[in-house]
């Protein structure tokens, strides 16, 4: 039987790669990497810890960037973990001028209860910033 034990990377469809990269860098402290693909196109990734998110322009063709059948910006719901306290998350996102949609609230994480603050990225994706107690 086949099993998996980790996610290597995610691809996030975005309207504006530069705006999204700036937001994920400023608000979530991710690092931007730009590199040429095998076909010679510039690709932008955001890295954090041992993880990576590729930022795919929503208008890229299947020929240039093979992806899901119906790519659209703003349809993702992602949860990121932080060692920061919920109060520190609230303070930081406020300083970044990001509106809090919900939280801090207790939710169910993969390892048990987490305390989450919900915001939206430039495309409207729901971004959950959470910490385990």
TrEMBL record:
VOC domain mapped to chain residues: 6-132
Q: Which InterPro entries match?
A: Glyas_Bleomycin-R_OHBP_Dase, Glyas_Fos-R_dOase_dom, GlyoxalaseI/FosfomycinResist, VOC_core
Instruction: Output the superkingdom of the source species.
Output: Bacteria
The cross-references to PROSITE patterns, in alphabetical order and at most eight, read:
VOC
One Pfam family of this chain:
Glyoxalase
Classification via PANTHER family? GLYOXALASE FAMILY PROTEIN, METALLOTHIOL TRANSFERASE FOSB
Q: Protein name, please?
A: VOC family protein
The organism named in the record is Sphingomonas natans
Taxonomic classification, please?
Bacteria, Pseudomonadati, Pseudomonadota, Alphaproteobacteria, Sphingomonadales
């Amino acid at each position: 039987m086949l099993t998996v034990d980790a996610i290597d990377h995610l691809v996030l469809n975005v309207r504006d790669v530069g705006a999204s990269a700036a937001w994920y860098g400023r608000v979530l402290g991710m690092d931007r990497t730009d590199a040429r693909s095998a076909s010679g196109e510039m690709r932008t990734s955001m890295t954090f810890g041992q993880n990576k998110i590729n930022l795919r322009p929503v208008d890229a063709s299947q020929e240039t960037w093979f992806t899901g059948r119906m790519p659209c910006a703003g349809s993702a719901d992602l949860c990121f973990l932080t060692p920061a306290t919920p109060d520190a998350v609230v303070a930081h996102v406020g300083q970044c001028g990001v509106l809090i949609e919900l939280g801090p609230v207790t939710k169910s994480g993969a390892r048990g209860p987490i305390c989450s603050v919900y915001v939206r990225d430039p495309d409207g994706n729901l971004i959950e910033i959470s910490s385990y107690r």
